[in-house]
Specification:
Helix content: 40-55%
Distance between the termini: 48 Å
Strand content: 15-25%
Strand order of the largest sheet: 4-3-5-14-6
Radius of gyration: 24 Å
Mean pLDDT: 90
Number of helices: 11
């Protein structure tokens, strides 16, 4: 089982180093992060212990300057993607906060599948562009939340007509069956829908991830109910790791497994007689024209098709 990294300084220490490199001043960098100089010095000491040596140059009396050592420069460069990812995660986590929406915020109704696949990218683009706050309403029926007025915008992943709502396609992410390279299915031309339905798979819990779309596709194809899972996983990342380790086959979104497939650590297996198309649609109330942050969010989600 993977363990937490033991030699990686905390995010605040890395951000502090980055800001010292930018401003040339520990005091300025500390103030920008809401730290006292003493607290900043403590963060630097901890980072030096983890990095195995000084990250800031010492003056004649041994006091730290605001000039980075080679080790400090490398830490700043290597930590860049991590800090950027943390900033993107921060804007997504803000949407989960259980706070009143307020006049400047838009309530977005979505189920966990949609939030996992799409939401973070939209929120990052909103932050970097027009700005605005989004509050996520986690619901199994986003369309109903929009109809009732509990949400201004919703995103659905179920097919079929949507009464009293405008809809626009925002993404298409087909499902794919994947196995580890050594799995018997990796060497065949494909499997039938009935064989897939009768095989215990690695899956997410009921209602999560790709499972609802897979169950609906099997039902539409008349392939029967999905067999009891071999094991359920709380997140796609854990599910992918299990498939890579050879624990069994799984059905996941193509975008989720793209990197693993490109690296050769997962193999896509064709499924005959099964439509694994999955489409996401943004919805809003019929007869209304979204404004402000709601309009900006829809413009981002639809790639500019709604203005």
């Amino acid at each position: 089982m993977a363990t937490a990294p033991a030699r990686v300084p905390d995010l605040t220490a890395l951000a502090l180093l980055r800001d010292i490199a930018c401003s040339g001043s520990m005091a300025t960098a500390a103030e920008g992060l809401g730290l006292t100089v003493q607290a900043a010095s403590a963060r630097i000491r901890a980072a030096e212990q983890q990095a195995g040596g000084p990250v800031l140059e010492r003056g004649r009396r041994g006091r730290r300057s605001s000039s980075l050592t080679t080790r400090g420069v490398l830490l700043v460069e290597w930590a860049g993607p991590l800090l950027a990812a943390a900033a993107d995660l921060d804007v997504a986590v803000a949407a989960l906060r259980d706070e009143p929406a307020g006049e400047d915020a838009v309530v977005l109704a979505a189920n966990p599948v949609v939030a996992e696949c799409l939401l973070q990218g939209w929120l990052v683009e909103l932050r970097d562009g027009p700005g605005g706050r989004v509050v996520l309403r986690d619901t199994a029926d986003p369309a109903a939340a929009v109809r009732s007025g509990d949400a201004a915008v919703g995103v659905v992943s179920t097919p079929g007509p949507l009464e009293d709502l405008h809809a626009a396609t925002v993404a298409s992410d087909p499902l794919v069956l994947v196995v580890a390279p050594g799995h018997p299915w990796s060497a065949v031309d494909g499997v039938d829908a009935t064989e897939l339905a009768g095989t215990p798979l690695l899956t997410r819990p009921p209602g999560a991830g790709a499972r609802p779309a897979l169950e609906a596709a099997l039902d539409a194809a008349g392939a029967g109910e999905l067999a009891a899972p071999r094991r359920e996983y709380a997140a796609d990342a854990a599910l992918r790791a299990a498939v890579r380790a050879g624990a069994g086959p799984a059905v996941l979104g193509r975008a989720v497994v793209a990197a693993d497939v490109a690296a050769g650590s997962l193999v896509v297996v064709d499924v005959r007689g099964l439509d694994l198309t999955r489409e996401f649609r943004a919805v809003w109330r019929e007869g209304t024209s979204p404004r402000g942050t709601a309009r900006d969010l829809l413009r981002i989600a639809t790639g500019g098709r709604i203005r």
